[in-house]
Design a protein that fits this description.
Blueprint (H helix, E strand, L loop, with lengths): L1 H30 L6 E3 L12 H5 L3 H4 L7 E3 L5 E3 L4 E6 L5 E6 L14 H10 L15 E5 L6 E6 L19 H7 L4 H10 L6 H9 L17 E6 L5 E5 L12 E5 L5 H6 L5 E4 L17 E16 L8 H9 L3 H12 L22 H7 L4 H4 L6 E5 L5 H14 L5 E4 L13 E3 L5 E3 L6 E6 L15 H14 L2 E14 L24
Parallel strand pairs: 1-10, 1-11, 13-14, 13-17
Antiparallel strand pairs: 2-3, 4-5, 5-7, 6-7, 8-9, 9-10, 11-18, 12-17, 12-18, 15-16
Helix pairs in contact: 4-6, 10-13
Pfam families: SBP_bac_5 (PF00496)
Protein name: ABC transporter, substrate-binding protein, family 5
GO molecular function, one term: peptide transmembrane transporter activity
Amino acid sequence: MASQTTTRSLALIMATILLVTGCSNNKTEETKAEHSFGYVLDDYLINTNVTTGIGFSSNIHQLVGRIYPGAFVNGPEGQRIPNTDLVEARALPGAPMRVEYQITDKAVYSDGQPVTCDSFLLAQVAATSRPLFDSYNPLMDQIDTINCQPGNKTATVVFKGNFGPRWRYLFSGGTLLPAHAIAAKANMSLADLNTALHNRDLPRLQQVAQVWNSGFDLGKFDPALQVSSGPFLVKSVAPDGAVTLVRNDKYYGEPAVLDKLIVYPKGTDLHKLADAGNLHIAEANSKTDTNWIDRNDNKNPYIVKANPGVLAEHLILASAGVLADQADRQAFAACVDQAAVAQASAKESGVEVQPVALRTIRPGDSIATHLKEISDQHLGVNIDQAKKLTGKTIRIGYFAPDKRKMAMVAAIKASCEPAGITILDVSNEAASVSNLPFSYQDEDGVDQATDGKADAVLQALDPQFSFPYVANPASDIEVARREENLSWDYTRTIPLAVQPRVLVLNKSVEGIAENTDLFGVGWNMDRWKE
């Protein structure tokens, strides 16, 4: 199952890239005939299931945050904004920690069916049932059970051991998929799905997993499955991958201001889209992508903002294969020169960014200055430690083409060569965490491992949703220090550098609240007004 999913994901990625690069000119010609509000991403639009490996690594958060809103909305400063239109959540007294989610009676999907606790249960079981489900949602590992009666509006989450203090980061935007629609596609009743999920009946869940893994692919858009619980819903998908969103008239919260917008994938020609009058907001890969904008022209309608973002880019490491052993992961980290990687990223993007050696907090967190002894220890290179991997080859994947990430991998290759470690850029074969081999226990408790085409994947991470072994948010210096040291014991990722972000904003658009986390500037797209 895992190898099949990996192959499917790669084929989907390559098909998407070819469509974008091959059809972008045609799409621009089409859009000249009709004015539309255009939002361009610096990521490919492949599926709308953010917790599949491919959805996570393609950062589809930017599209789905207002299609499948979460229990809390991520604000631009990292704040957790309760989404009381959807659900009211409260921690219950006693141990182990429990949190009750009471879904509002008015919360429905765009097909009129109610949002129920089954979507919460499905999200947790899918996230913790790899490789049957091609999932990546690590914080779900902190949950022991979810109490949910079929079709009910109440979900009670019970946590393992001392976990639970990070509960506000669970069930974020994009994770609460329509369980009733998935059950229907799998030829099951909602009650049967609920039972199979509670029992972790993997044979019974085979068809459910197939729908969950691939049913949300935009290349074969299924409107009966991709029903929305947010202010926007997917109306259609163009041949070049552009996604048309329209206002969800059954949304139970404040309606979206725009009745329609088109979201374009990476590879879209910004200049041509602007000439057609349909470029309003864009995330660009580098400042070079905005050179067509004449900032000295008084009639220029665009503002360009190029700054370091709030997140850091990491290498997410495999838990099987050449990096299965903790000491080997630490040896690999020892040959990575974060400063050189940051310089490579800055040169390609045109945005100065700083190297990073902390995982559990965002780079700009004020606590970071108090953890300098930890970051200093892990910045730079220790060739002697890295020589534990002499003679080994480490494969790094990412979504390509991407000149900036290619340069970052080249910098890693240069700093690891003195330790006798070969770094291969395998972005033509592997792009997502689905391509990483990982270890797991099967239903009989037997250790197993999957194959994969990469040993590391380069992408941005938000510590709020990562690192399941971290029990507590970094609320004070001592907690942050303890959790950061723990993260270096595990070395599940290698932090590299702050992620550069380049925004193009049309001055005519109101309601923009700039944001550079995973959900991007589109985190409040339902408030945009032209």
